[in-house]
Design brief:
The structure is a single chain. Helix content is 56%, strand content 7%. By secondary structure, it is mainly alpha-helical. It folds into 2 domains: 4-187 and 302-331, HUPs (Rossmann fold, 3-Layer(aba) Sandwich), CATH 3.40.50.620; 206-297, Tyrosyl-Transfer RNA Synthetase. A 3-stranded parallel beta sheet has the order 1-2-3, sandwiched between helices. A two-stranded parallel ribbon has the order 4-5. The structure holds adenosine monophosphate and tryptophan. Residues 9-10, 18-19, 22-23, 147-148, 150-151, 187-189, 198-199 line the site of adenosine monophosphate (AMP).
Length: 333
């Protein structure tokens, strides 16, 4: 039987190689399996949990759609829409926030990281962010949710919320319990400047990440400057575990070249980093430049991107409003 897929990406800036290898590449594979029903959501309501400039946000929403399309998601096959246009998401998030427990949310590590030292100043939305994420998933009866490793805890919370709702209201399997789909290897792509930090849109230095809109020269320069260590290329996986930067670059290469980690290690064992970096640059150029060119082309046709979102919002809205109607009946509204 086919899977019901739901996933979301925040429109908070240029998408990067971590988003691509951790999530979007998987979206494309799932979209290409005929039997699946896929929904990919630009989660603009999640984006406003931290300050956003309205003009930039609106560009970033289109940029995220362009990235989906340029990476190979087919809008005729999958639903692509932005969260704010389907009001059921906000409504379900409120209802589920009355099911979720404070103790559960207090354990969320992403909130702790994002709120930083001054928790009192974080928005309430940043705190209840995972409840909105649960609403996204449960409204569509998603069976599988492709995400990067960093979202695993939020998915476990979603499962807990679904289970508690089903138990509290004795509705058996009204909410489907979704399975996370997380890449087994390379599920966490690290910064090019620090192998212990996640590659992220919010990192100040652009040299820390490969953006999906980078040019050939930018990719060449970033890989040249990527941090390594003075030793030659490792010859065993054990060697790698003590060398986070080398591990990350070898992981990126393996993922892009569709090789196992061991195969890449054998290929470059004992060689100089400079030789490996030339090969890495080449696979990055082969993979990223066609996406980058296509994103820029698509961004010139805003009407086309807006039509895709409008069409997707209608389709998603139809599904979500039916689920909300049933939720009202269950609650006694
Ligand atoms: P976000 O941009 O935070 O909305 O993330 C979109 C998707 O990309 C989520 O599934 C994340 O788990 C994934 N992702 C973000 N950063 C990374 C990274 N450095 N490595 C792997 N996956 C990532
Ligand atoms: N929280 C996810 C992230 O930052 C984005 C997201 C929102 C999401 N809603 C979702 C992912 C539903 C999967 C399913 O990456």
């Amino acid at each position: 039987m086919g899977k019901k897929i739901f996933s979301g990406v925040q429109p908070t800036g240029n998408l990067h190689l971590g988003n691509y290898l951790g999530a979007i590449k998987n979206f494309v594979d799932l979209n290409n399996e005929d039997e699946n029903d896929c929904i990919f959501c630009v989660v603009d309501l999640h984006a406003i949990t931290v300050n956003q400039d309205p003009k930039e946000l609106s560009n970033n929403i289109r940029g995220t759609v362009a990235t989906f399309l340029a990476s190979g998601i087919d809008p005729k096959k999958s639903i692509i829409f932005n969260q704010s246009k389907v009001s059921a998401h906000s409504e379900a998030a409120w209802i589920l926030s009355c099911v979720a427990r404070m103790g559960w949310l207090n354990r969320m590590t992403q909130f702790k990281e994002k709120a930083g030292k001054d928790k009192e100043k974080a928005s309430v939305g940043l705190y209840s962010y995972p409840v909105l994420m649960a609403a996204d998933i449960l409204l569509y009866d998603a069976t599988h949710v492709p995400v990067g490793e960093d979202q695993k805890q939020h998915l476990e919370l979603c499962r807990d919320i679904a289970q508690k709702f089903n138990n509290d209201f004795k509705t058996n399997d009204f909410f489907k319990i979704p399975e996370p789909l997380i890449q087994k290897e390379f599920s966490r792509i690290m910064s090019l400047k620090d192998g212990l930090k996640k590659m992220s849109k919010s990192e100040i230095s652009d040299l820390s990440r490969i953006n999906l809109t980078d040019t050939k020269d930018e990719i060449i320069n970033k890989i040249k400057k990527a941090k390594t260590d003075p030793l030659p290329m490792p010859s065993t996986i054990d060697d790698l575990n003590k060398r986070p930067e080398a591990k990350n670059l070898i992981g990126i290469y393996s993922s892009l070249a569709d090789l196992k980690l061991e195969e890449t290690i054998n290929k470059f064992s004992g060689k100089n980093f400079s030789e490996f970096k030339e090969n890495l640059t080449q696979v990055l150029i082969d993979k990223i430049i066609p996406i980058s060119v296509e994103i820029k082309k698509l961004l010139d046709d805003k009407n086309y991107l807006d039509e895709i979102l409008l069409d997707g919002s209608k389709k998603a809205g139809d599904i979500a409003s039916k689920k909300i109607k049933k939720i009202h009946e269950i609650l006694g509204f």
